[in-house]
């Protein structure tokens, strides 16, 4: 990637660049460490990532941000080699931010961080262009391996997530309209209210619900919402 331009003055939710490496194998004069940007709204998590990254030969913590707005500004300024991106940010969806980052920089190498195990969420992230997908509970064991793999242009998905994804191959995804309907079911809306909100008939709503139950192998609308939340189709 191109050399970074001078970045903005760090704000309250923005970390300062990482320190030089203090341990590990020495880099040669011709090798520049791969820069890593972390966008996550938990400052303690970013601090932990910074410590791990800066302790690894060949890597450098370039900085971190706590919001999508700050993260986008830092990404534009630093053009990191690898970006760690939380899927849930306080001001914007991580997947939405990833679309912006990749539109501006198609070669951006992004690892999605999340607490959700759902295969649907992992599938959406990978389809949107993420090269890596990590549960935050796996950071201690998998973070460095994921960064090195993604920096080398390889995909990194932990085995247990990959197994869930492969088990769902061939299944039909919920359509955008079906997701809209199911989100409103999760909010407690009646079929009549859902139809009014979406500008469709109550009968059409019932048709969407029938399709949703079939695709998710759900017994009823409450069961469908439970499955959708477990698999990461959406969150509440």
UniProtKB/TrEMBL annotation:
Keywords (A to Z) from UniProt: DNA-binding, Phosphoprotein
HTH luxR-type domain location: 167-232
Coiled-coil ranges from the UniProt annotation: none
Region (Disordered): 1-31
Composition-biased stretches (Pro residues): 1-11
Name recorded for this polypeptide: LuxR family two component transcriptional regulator
Ranges for domain Response regulatory: 35-151
CDD domains: LuxR_C_like, REC_NarL-like
Modified residues (4-aspartylphosphate): 86
């Amino acid at each position: 990637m191109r050399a970074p331009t001078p970045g903005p003055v760090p704000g309250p939710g923005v970390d300062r660049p990482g320190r030089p490496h203090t341990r590990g194998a020495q880099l040669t004069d011709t090798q520049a460490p791969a820069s890593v940007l972390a966008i996550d709204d938990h400052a303690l998590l970013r601090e932990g990532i910074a410590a791990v990254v800066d302790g690894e030969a060949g890597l450098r913590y370039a900085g971190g941000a706590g919001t999508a707005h700050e993260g986008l500004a830092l990404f534009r300024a630093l053009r990191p080699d690898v970006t760690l991106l939380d899927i849930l940010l306080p001001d914007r969806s991580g997947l939405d931010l990833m679309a912006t980052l990749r539109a501006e920089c198609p070669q951006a190498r992004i690892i999605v961080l999340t607490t959700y195990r759902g295969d649907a969420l992992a599938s959406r992230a990978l389809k949107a262009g993420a090269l890596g997908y990590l549960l935050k509970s796996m950071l201690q064991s998998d973070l460095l391996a994921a960064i090195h793999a993604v920096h080398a242009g390889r995909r990194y998905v932990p085995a247990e997530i990959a197994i869930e994804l492969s088990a769902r191959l061939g299944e039909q995804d919920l359509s955008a309209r079906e997701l809209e309907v199911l989100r409103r079911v999760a909010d407690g809306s009646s079929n009549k209210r859902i139809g009014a909100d979406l500008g469709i008939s109550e009968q059409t709503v019932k048709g969407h619900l029938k399709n949703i139950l079939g695709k998710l192998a759900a017994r009823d609308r409450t069961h469908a919402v439970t499955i959708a939340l477990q698999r990461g189709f959406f969150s509440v």
